[in-house]
Design a protein that fits this description.
The structure is a homodimer of 425-residue chains. Chain A has helices at 10-21, 23-30, 61-66, 83-92, 102-118, 135-142, 157-169, 173-182, 191-194, 197-211, 230-238, 300-316, 356-366, 396-407; strands at 2-6, 35-40, 56-58, 72-75, 96-99, 123-124, 148-154, 221-222, 241-252, 255-266, 278-285, 289-296, 341-351, 371-379, 384-391, 394-395, 417-422. Chain A is α/β, with parallel strands linked by helices and 425 residues long.
Chain lengths: 425, 425
């Protein structure tokens, strides 16, 4: 089995290292010897984390996808600009493709899957979501008897690291972000991680696999964690919750919900205890009920673990009639965010003058929204009161109306923070 | 694809129900229609949880394993007495076999696997460990690139329910066991669950899959939870630990450790937060690092989820060259329990007279054992002091020597409780 690799950075280097380290056990599992014959790199003279003495390096990636001796191409470059055409070329040349590239799949996955089906090759992407956690294989194989009802994942390690540090050490967002950048967890431009785009890429892939639908990344409601304050985290703790940045997908009748946002979840939920850079995905199936898959969402060898598992799958099942559930699926309607029902958390700053609570609760009453929990915490130096509220399960439009009314009131002193509260039963 | 079922109780009935409920999605995944044609039951006139109108029932189980139309036999009777010969007969008749029977596998798995290989049929058993959690598929497929270094599992829901209730509600073992029996979680004879035999069956299966070794159930060191007291749980909490009944398997050089015992683990470990009847398995692989698989360890449809996932696997991969890592493996040496290194927790009751602490610490000093944590809690009505101690990592023989010396001393007032303390890093 001859492998060509596109990209020999962290992940590509990790793949070469793990293939070498565990060559014996991989041979025992597959019956064949896996050999990396060719790797496309940006600069052949660069230092690498892996030994490349028996691998031909080329600066022309097309040499890899066109090479007659390559059976499987591993696309480990990332980004969508050059990779789309490379993957298409590899598929058209009859090569199986394994990719860790969530952006490529989220944006062009539907066409690529179709092309792979037409060319009777496999396109696998376990490493694209939650790093080394075998969540895609679990959804497709381990949970294959289930109709998946919902899933909720912590799929961005950077965001989870930031929220964990904010909670455990009472630090603010900007401070922890700077540390995350220094540690190499976050990019110089952290937008993809902290604004939820990376998580939305991954959620769209998970939802497609779980529900057997087409990828619809453009329909994911996406909100990041950059506006979470230490106050929010303290109020959440006091109310018995933990704030996690979750990607949530649910089947609702014949439609689905897909949303990425900071979420208050019960502190006793197992996923509330997933901390630091770790990832986890909670899945609810109609037969199994709730299950959870936890592990490293990034790192050279953790990601390599998923890439090589796909490689072993291809070798062992070349002649199988393994069918992806979504191949023949229609585009399923994604529910508009304004129509989603949820409990909500609101944090307000109001003038501490008499009659404010009556006016405030009247606003909720007018929208027919119940207040399930209420904390009025302290009066600050400007004589303002800090308030945190949990509502009953209501429509998103309702809560946005309440926010608008409060912000237009004479007692309001700051923009109203709104966060989802989710019961993951 | 024609299926014959042995046993139509909780699990068998669940399988029929899930196959019916999700017939469409299973057909989409497999391309074939799965039909249960024949079921062997003890009493054909008995009421069942599933509709049997289109299934032929027989009271002769051999009719199922000998029937020419049956392609796959699901063995869901349990126990080893009648099932061993039934499974052997099915395999010799060229039928694939799926079983949820951990006792059968733990005790006769090596011969049965060999027989299946000789007859070129598959013997699958995802449901035998941790119910619906796809832990065997994850070890074989999702983690196939890894050399597994260790695993630790909460694989008996009854035991975990008892320990959770003892901790959360300050109830004693006998009291919770009675409730577990009333709720149907524990059998009238609870020995298999509370003394760890069920967990040892499952651990021996997990270790064989993880390390690619033969099954060696008889070599598992097994200790139950019946001697855990509410004092132990309180001391553990105070020291920052949770007590869980774990099955632990580790690779140590060319040998392995296999042991089932109550274990103190750090309260912040994710597996420490697995409560009630839920199961979880923590796996450490050399590439992925630590990952965890969590879900329902029992229940009709949860177990059916695993049985049917195996069935879908057989249908989709009939022609694959899927190889179980352990097929060609030698018997690996299992390390004697006396030679295992661990931190330990000791709980003592001693007379509260002067000089006792000096004598006690001298016993530890003589065995070259350090005391890492020490609590002397209170003096009771009989003027005895309660003491809890955590040692450094030492040999099991050392701690047994300490126990013997303390119990032989003039100041000792009760047998010394000894529990393992495990760092699951």
């Amino acid at each position: 089995m001859k492998v060509g690799i596109l990209g020999l950075g962290t992940v590509g280097g990790g793949v070469v290292n793990v293939l070498r380290k565990n060559a014996d056990s991989i041979k025992r599992r597959t019956g064949v010897k896996v050999k990396v014959v060719l790797a496309g790199v940006r600069d052949v003279s660069q230092d690498r984390i892996c030994d490349t003495s028996d691998i031909t390096l080329t600066e022309d990636p097309y040499e890899v996808v066109n090479h007659k001796d390559v059976d499987v191409v591993l696309e480990l470059i990332g980004g969508t600009e050059v990779t789309k055409d490379l993957v298409e070329t590899a598929i058209k040349n009859g090569k199986h493709v394994i990719t860790a590239n969530k952006a490529l799949l989220a944006e062009h996955g539907n066409e690529l899957i179709q092309l792979a089906n037409q060319n009777k090759v496999r396109l696998l992407f376990e490493a694209s979501v939650a790093g080394g956690i075998p969540i895609i294989k679990s959804l497709e194989q381990g949970l294959s008897a289930n109709k998946i009802e919902s899933l909720a994942g912590i799929v961005n390690g950077t965001g989870n690291f930031i929220l964990t540090e904010m909670k455990e050490k009472d630090r603010d967002f900007a401070d922890v972000l700077k540390e995350a950048q220094m540690l190499g967890y976050a990019e110089a431009d952290p937008t993809y991680d902290v604004e939820g785009i990376d998580a939305a890429h991954k959620l769209s892939i998970l939802a497609a696999i779980a529900f057997g639908t087409e990828l619809q990344f453009d329909k994911v409601y996406t909100k990041g964690i950059s506006e979470i304050t230490t106050e929010d985290i303290k109020y959440a703790t006091e109310l018995g919750y933990v704030i996690k940045h979750l990607g949530i997908a649910k089947r609702v009748g014949n439609s689905i919900e897909m949303r990425v946002h900071p979420t208050l979840i019960d502190k006793d939920q197992i996923i509330a205890n997933v901390n630091g850079v770790m990832n986890a995905v909670l899945v609810k199936g109609d037969a199994l009920g709730t299950s959870l898959y936890y592990g490293a969402g990034a790192g050279d060898e953790a990601t390599a673990s998923a890439v090589i598992a796909d490689l072993i799958d291809i070798i062992n099942n070349q002649t199988s009639n393994h069918i992806l559930g979504w191949k023949s699926q229609e585009k399923t309607k994604v529910i508009d965010n304004n129509l989603i029902n949820s409990e909500f958390y609101l944090r307000l700053l109001v003038s501490d003058v008499s009659g404010v609570l009556a006016k405030l609760t009247q606003i909720f009453h007018d929208q027919k929204v119940s207040i399930e929990a209420f904390i009025q915490k302290k009066v600050d130096v400007d004589n303002n009161a800090h308030i945190a509220i949990i509502t009953n399960k209501i429509n998103t439009k309702n809560v946005m109306n309440i926010k608008a009314k409060i912000e237009a009131s004479d007692f309001n002193q700051d923009s109203v923070q709104i966060l989802h509260v989710e019961t993951l039963d």
